[in-house]
């Protein structure tokens, strides 16, 4: 493709972008209706922009290679021109000498040719031998004069030609360089503008999605999931409980709640496997140093006054005292580090709930007090400051970085597989090798109903209904405001469509709805610790949905407070 044609295509594509931008809908802060439609439209606009920009980026990379090649050639040409300039300068210096020689030779040749006659040569020669020698000498001198005259004249003419070519080459070089710089600047600028446009769309999508996620967050909060291993509860493993109906389906999550930093039950499992406190901390944090800190610092506790650092840590109620000492010591160091980071070295105030870390007025004794004494003043630091050493009761076999969960990266959190082998290739691997597999929250289906033996099992037709809402939203995003759970008021203030209405809407769009699900399974990325897709078969055919989309739609539609609470989930059938 020629450069002109390529640039014409780029201009055509980029001229369309502002139009798409102008057509974007405006979202009002107090609206939830039309939310999914807006998100889809924004996503579509961003996808169009990305689709338009990707070929441009590919062509730009190709052009960059071409430009680099041209730059190399221009550099070589510039060097050759420079060398020619030096050579011509030397030739000009030599030519001054040659011009003097040429003048002398021309004069000598002229004299020999016009002022010395053969008759005079014959008269001046005393013998025939002298005659022939003189004639030969004069002929040779004349030929040499001709050669020198011809050579010097050719040299002068070539010098003039080369100088003229040199000037033209220099002009071409400047023109080429200007064109290369102009093309590179233009294309780079256009790609940059397209990227800015895409980033703007992405920020709008994030803002709108955040409003939708508010509903999901409220449902999740209703489960009252505890972060602390000391107060663990409210999770029920329904695998061995009959709901009272057949063809039942349940969705089991690995771990809860945030999975960042230390896995408390994982620390227990590692301690039971013989690991010490330092090994445990290194398993869950990275890029840190353990140092002695000033124990005279006082921690301001919300509603409870101030406590010297060690007295504060004595009052932390995060893990059972019956756990191995190495796990208790790791928890003491993490709690001390968190408190210092949270309060900015004692300058701020820390709360007493699980939102910070569990604090009670009465100091603990026994094994916890010993763990605090064994680790007196020890703090994890990064860049010279205490780290905010997050932790939670059960990670479900994985450790996530803060960037993966909250979007804010920290140098001391990381992603890792928390198993005895350091990896996992299946759900079976996690069940057998995860360090936190003894936790009652390791593998749970969350929520329940008063009926069906208070389990989280769903009927096949209930799962079919959730799948139908996914199909309907995909076909028409404006329907999403009608597709919340049917056993509670609609959060958008409109009507909830029951399973029959959803089926009819699908039929109206020439889509076969599901009446029941005969097969449902998941695919997972066991390196990332996330369910990637949910695959469904039934009387409505076969469909596959992304794990994230399925989880969100499930949590918006499933009855009561039944939910999928984490990124990695599996499906059980009974």
Quick structural gist:
The chain is mostly helical. It contains 14 helices and 16 strands.
Walk me through this protein's architecture.
The chain has three domains: about 5-220, Helix Hairpins (Orthogonal Bundle), CATH 1.10.287; about 230-250 and about 445-574, no CATH class; about 255-440, no CATH class. The protein is mainly alpha-helical and about 575 residues long. The protein contains 14 helices and 16 strands. The two termini are about 60 Å apart. A hairpin with a 2-residue loop joins strand 7 (about 380) and strand 8 (about 385). It has helices at about 5-20, 35-115, 120-125, 130-220, 265-270, 275-285, 310-315, 325-340, 365-375, 400-405, 425-435, 460-475, 500-510, 545-555, and strands spanning about 250-255, 260-265, 290, 300, 305-310, 350, 380, 385, 390, 400, 415, 445, 515-525, 530-540, 540-545, 570-574. The radius of gyration is 42 Å and the shape is elongated. The longest helix is centred in the N-terminal third of the chain and has 94 residues, at about 130-220.
Number of domains: 3
User: Percent of residues in beta strands?
Assistant: 5-15%
The level 1 CATH classification of the largest domain is Mainly Alpha
Helix content: 40-55%
Number of helices: 14
Enumerate the strands of the largest sheet in spatial order, edge to edge or round the barrel.
12-1-16
Model regions low in confidence, pLDDT < 50 over at least 5 residues: 1-34
Sheet with the most strands, sense and barrel status: 3 strands, antiparallel
Number of strands: 16
């Amino acid at each position: 493709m020629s450069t002109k044609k390529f640039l014409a295509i780029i201009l055509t594509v980029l001229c369309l972008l502002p139009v798409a931008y102008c057509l974007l809908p405006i979202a009002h802060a107090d609206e939830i209706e039309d939310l999914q439609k807006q998100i889809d439209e924004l996503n579509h606009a961003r996808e169009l922009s990305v689709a338009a920009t990707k070929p441009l980026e590919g062509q730009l990379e190709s052009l960059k290679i071409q430009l680099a090649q041209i730059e190399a050639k221009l550099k070589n040409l510039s060097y050759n021109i420079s060398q020619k300039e030096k050579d011509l300068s030397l030739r000009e210096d030599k030519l001054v000498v040659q011009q003097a020689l040429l003048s002398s030779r021309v004069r000598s040749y002229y004299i020999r040719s016009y002022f010395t006659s053969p008759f005079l040569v014959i008269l001046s020669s005393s013998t025939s031998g002298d005659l022939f020698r003189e004639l030969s000498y004069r002929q040779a001198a004349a030929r040499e004069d001709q050669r020198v005259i011809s050579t010097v004249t050719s040299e002068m003419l070539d010098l003039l030609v080369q100088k003229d070519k040199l000037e033209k080459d220099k002009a071409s070089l400047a023109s080429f360089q200007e064109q290369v710089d102009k093309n590179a600047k233009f294309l780079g600028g256009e790609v940059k503008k397209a990227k800015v446009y895409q980033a703007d769309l992405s920020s709008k999508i994030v803002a709108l999605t955040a409003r939708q996620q508010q509903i999901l967050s409220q449902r999740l909060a209703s489960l009252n999931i505890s972060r602390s291993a000391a107060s663990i509860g409210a999770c029920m493993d329904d695998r061995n409980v009959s709901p009272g109906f057949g063809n039942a389906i349940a969705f089991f999550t690995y771990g809860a709640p945030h999975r960042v930093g230390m896995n408390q039950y994982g620390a227990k499992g590692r301690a039971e496997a013989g690991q010490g406190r330092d090994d445990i901390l290194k398993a869950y944090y990275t890029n840190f140093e353990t140092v002695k800190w000033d124990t005279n610092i006082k921690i301001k506790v919300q509603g409870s006054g101030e406590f010297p650092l060690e007295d504060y840590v004595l009052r932390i109620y995060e893990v059972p005292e019956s756990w191995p000492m190495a796990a208790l010591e790791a928890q003491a160091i993490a709690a001390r580090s968190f408190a210092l980071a949270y309060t900015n070295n004692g300058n701020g105030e820390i709360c007493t709930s699980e939102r910070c870390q569990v604090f009670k007025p009465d100091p603990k004794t026994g094994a916890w007090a010993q763990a605090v004494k064994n680790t007196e003043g020890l703090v994890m630091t990064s860049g010279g400051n205490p780290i905010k050493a997050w932790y939670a009761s059960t990670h479900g076999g994985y450790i996530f970085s803060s960037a993966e969960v909250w979007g804010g990266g920290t140098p001391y959190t990381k992603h890792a597989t928390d198993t005895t082998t350091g990896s996992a290739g299946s759900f079976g691997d996690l069940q057998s090798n995860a360090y936190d597999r003894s936790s009652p929250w390791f593998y749970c289906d969350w929520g329940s109903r008063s009926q069906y033996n208070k389990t989280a099992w769903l009927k096949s037709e209930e799962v079919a209904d959730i799948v139908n809402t996914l199909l309907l939203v995909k076909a028409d995003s404006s329907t999403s405001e009608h597709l919340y759970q049917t056993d509670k008021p609609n959060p958008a203030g409109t009507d909830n469509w029951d399973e029959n209405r959803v089926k009819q809407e699908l039929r109206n769009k020439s889509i076969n709805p599901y009446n029941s699900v005969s097969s449902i399974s998941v695919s997972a990325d066991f390196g990332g610790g996330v369910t990637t897709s949910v695959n469904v078969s039934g009387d409505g055919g076969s469909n596959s949905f992304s794990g994230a989309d399925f989880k969100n739609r499930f949590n918006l539609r499933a009855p009561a407070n039944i939910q999928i609470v984490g990124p990695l989930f599996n499906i059980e059938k009974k």
